[in-house]
Amino acid sequence: MNLEQVYQYCLQKPQAEETFPFDQDTLVFKVCGKMFALLPLEKWEAGQGSISLKCDPKYAIELREEYDSIKAAYHMNKAHWNTIYLSKNEITYDLLCDLIDQSYSLVVSKLTKKQQSQLNINNN
What we know:
124 residues; Aspartate Aminotransferase, domain 1; 24% strand; MmcQ-like protein; YjbR; YjbR/MT2646/Rv2570-like
C-alpha cells in the first residue's frame, strides 16, 4: 500500500478536501472543515508511512491491543485517535480502508443535520 492509494481513497470520500493546516509536510483530509485523516508526508518519503484516524474509543483500545502497528495518536486526543504505522506491513489495505471509512463516518455523524444532508450520502 502506497501513499497514492491512501491519498486517492481519502479524497474520494464525499466532499473530502485536502488541506495543510499545520505545515507543508502534514496532509490533512477534512469533511465540512473537520479532520478525518492526517498523513505526515515526510515520513512517507522516508519509507515510514503512517496515517492518523479518528476511532471509537473502545474500538481504538481493541485495535491497539491486537496490532503492534496501531498506537494512540501523537499530539491528538488519544481516546479518539489512532496512528496506524504502515511500514510494518501488518495492516491490510482492506482493514485500512475500513478504518478510514469509520473515521470519516464518525466525523460526519458529529456534523449538523444540515451539513449531513448537503453531503448527499447515507450515514450508517
